[in-house]
Amino acid sequence: MSKNIPQPPVHNVDDKSSVEASRMHFSLPAELEAGEPPEARGLERDEVRLMVSYVSNNQVAHTRFRQIEDFLNAGDVLVINTSGTLNAALPVQSKDGTRFGLHLSTHLPNNTWVIELRSYTDALKKTTRPYYGAKPGETYQLPAGGKLTIHKAYRSDQAVPRLWIASLDLPAPLHAYLNEYGFPIRYGYVREGWPISYYQTVYATEMGSAEMPSAGRAFTHQLITRLVAKGILIVPLLLHTGVASAEYNEPVYEEYYRVPQSTAYIINAAHEANRRVIAVGTTVVRALETVTDTNGITSAGEGWTDIFITPQRGIHAVNGLITGLHEPLSTHLAMLEAIAGRAHLEITYQQALQEGYLWHEFGDLHLILP
């Protein structure tokens, strides 16, 4: 990460109450939590299920992702996030010999990291939960003689911090070290470890995300070729995702983004021509809303975003979204409501539950259209 990148902004938590007011309430059965990649279920990436819904009339269609071209028109713009996923999980050990899991979240410009320590919940050390006992100044041993030093809580407004600012002292360059000793971040619903290749989109160009920008996982090279041949424009941006906060009922955190001038130009031209601009993932929405004004004009930009999208704020950059299915506590649901409205979301999520759609990064997808 270059040294001239703007520093992360001051935290913006003013809209936390908006998220609480926007929270949808439903129960997610355990059998609908995708615990393995679709490839392990005998499917190709693009054979996951796709729910297509139209906000204007609440119509809902059920298909497979590889049929998405049937619902897109020539001139539509798909905006993708080309950030690649790191092996961002590492084993660490405290001075007293206690073993923990370490999740690297965000690489800051001063070469420190936002990190999360996690305690193991089973004897085989396969599942973890947040560890709240870290203290400033503590050091932890990393594989091959590496060292982690805790500096301070990432947020000053939390009595019991989950995330910390820390530095790494590694015996090898970062990416080589993570490739050798790290592994993908996974949570309890993913029962087995999977290689990092299962956590990459086919169009990833720059490594930096702690967790996969998963809305784009179902795209294949063949599908992208068919979409381009149909006249659908695919334009890139970059947003490096940090560790998930949805399961902890927390606001979102700062993330690094970069929106190229060419992408901004094509989005503005599409809006001018009354074409649809469809974000592939909530990370794309977050980056674009950071550089789009209230008149819907998108500019190029690079830096750190702490933008928090709620129905009260609204969305100006896109009018469509490809996304996974989100848990009841997820702050992403507030963003989806800003795009689709509460009534439409309730209709689609009821159908997703009834039809047995799968949740999480290895699950099924939802295409929201105007």
Can you put this structure into words, describing what you see?
With 370 residues, this protein is α/β, with parallel strands linked by helices. The chain has 2 domains: 246 residues, QueA-like (3-Layer(aba) Sandwich), CATH 3.40.1780.10; 93 residues, no CATH class. It contains 7 helices and 18 strands. The strands form 3 sheets. A 9-stranded mixed sheet has the order 2-1-18-17-15-3-13-14-16. Strand 6 and strand 7 form a beta hairpin. Helix 6 crosses helix 7. The chain is globular and about 60 Å long. It starts with 15 loop residues before the first helix and ends with a strand. The N terminus is likely disordered.
Give the SSE layout.
Elements: H1 16-22, E1 49-54, E2 60-64, E3 77-81, E4 83-85, E5 89-93, E6 99-107, E7 113-120, E8 128-130, E9 139-141, E10 147-153, E11 163-169, H2 174-181, E12 206-209, H3 221-229, E13 233-239, E14 255-259, H4 261-272, E15 277-280, H5 282-290, E16 301-305, E17 320-323, H6 332-340, H7 342-354, E18 365-369
Parallel strand pairs: 1-18, 3-13, 3-15, 4-12, 15-17
Antiparallel strand pairs: 1-2, 5-6, 6-7, 7-8, 7-11, 9-10, 10-11, 13-14, 14-16, 17-18
Helix pairs in contact: 6-7
Summarize the structure.
The chain is an alpha/beta fold.
The strand order across the widest sheet is: 2-1-18-17-15-3-13-14-16
CATH topology of the largest domain: QueA-like
Q: Please tell me the total number of domains.
A: 2
Give the termini distance in whole angstroms.
37 Å
- The percentage of residues in β strands lies in 25-35%
Protein name: S-adenosylmethionine:tRNA ribosyltransferase-isomerase
Organism: Ktedonosporobacter rubrisoli
GO molecular function, one term: S-adenosylmethionine:tRNA ribosyltransferase-isomerase activity
Keywords: Cytoplasm, Isomerase, Queuosine biosynthesis, S-adenosyl-L-methionine, Transferase
